[in-house]
Amino acid sequence: MPTFTNQALLSYNGIIYPSNVVTGEITEALSMTKTALSSDYSACGRIAYAISILNSGSTTLSNLVLTDDLGAYSFSGSTLTPLDVDALSVRYYINGVLQPQGTVTVSEGPPLTISNIFVPGNGNVLIVYEAVPNQFAPLFSGAAINNTAILNGSSLQAPVSAEDTVPVLEQPQLSITKFLSPAVVPEDGQLTYTFFIQNTGNADIPATDDLILTDTFNPRLFNITVTADGAVWTEGIQYTYNENTGVFTTLPGALPVEGATYTRDEESGAWAVSPGTVTLTVSGTV
Q1: How far apart are CA 148 and CA 44, in angstroms?
Q2: What does residue 141 show for φ and ψ, rounded to 5 degrees?
Q3: How confident is the model at residue 27 (pLDDT cuts 50, 70, 90)?
Q4: Is 7 or 265 the better-scoring residue by pLDDT?
Q5: Residue 26 to residue 8: CA distance in whole angstroms
Q6: How many CA atoms lie within 13 A of 125 on its CB side?
Q7: Residue 61's CB: how many other CB atoms inside 10 A?
Q8: How far is it, in rounded angstroms, from Cα 278 to Cα 270?
Q9: pLDDT tens across 206-222, in order?
């Protein structure tokens, strides 16, 4: 809270007699907190933020303006903003009651700006909105996004600010795509299934983890050959296969997948993701 000092001067016949210095403090009637409702973020996720504004005074405060920097940071002389906000995601509550769209004016920015905020005396306001990480959001292990919201208005003694930091999600993020070749095969012909596994997350899947792929081939394959990134696999060591049921299963530890690598364009500051990949092929006779 802001403090102030004051001193009086007494003059007599050209002589100055100063008083003691008194110190006081102005306690703000308005307080604000900002909380991320998401524990972490990822390239495909959203971050929900809640800003709570409490007016402990009896005077209604109006025409307030909230500005959120959306995690803006400096890079090579430029300012980059790692979050985007959809204006339609903004929700504005007064004393717990949702207000109609258009009650406040929203500019997506950056920065995000919400105008015409009204906080009743001895009341509260809750503002909720969603942000989406963009190409300027760091995804490497240990990264985080810190953003600050500032509330301004002519009725305030001083701007009120609140901030929050959200760490990046620290785990693998997997996807798998399956291909068939050829699409048309004669009876007793050769058929190949190709599985393309990607990890866009910032954490490896080591051989000690139990990443397992299971597939039931229909029609069944016979005399199969299995390779992973070109290396031939051995049944019973890296996989099992039942020709009677067509069930194919990789064994625990056979499918390590490295985490993604992240590179930054030195001019634009945008991040590019290079996933860790494994290509598994299973060929056999139908």
Answers
A1: 22
A2: -60, 130
A3: low
A4: 265
A5: 20
A6: 27
A7: 22
A8: 26
A9: 998 889 999 999 999 99
Token pair for residue 181? 């070749």
Q: Are 14 and 40 in contact (CB under 8 A)?
A: no
pLDDT value for 23 = 81
d(CA 257, CA 265): 25
Q: Tens of pLDDT along 174-230?
A: 999 999 999 888 888 999 999 999 999 999 999 988 899 999 999 999 999 999 999
Q: How big is the CA angle at 234 (ends 231 and 237), to the nearest 5 degrees?
A: 115
Report residue 281 as tokens: 């092929």
- E strand map for 95-202: 97-98, 105-107, 112-119, 123-133, 144-152, 160-167, 174-181, 190-199
* Beta partners for residue 23, in sequence order: 5
Size of the chain in residues: 286
97 to 18, 29, 117, 124, 248: CA distances (angstroms): 54, 21, 14, 10, 56
User: The whole model's pTM is what?
Assistant: 0.79
Helix (H, G, I), strand (E, B) or coil at 262: strand
Task: Quote the pLDDT of residue 34.
Answer: 97
Side chain identity at 112, as an amino acid letter? Answer: L
Q: Mind giving me the DSSP string for 46-77?
A: -EEEEEEEEE-SSS-EEEEEEEE-TT-EEETT
Percent of the chain with pLDDT over 70: 98
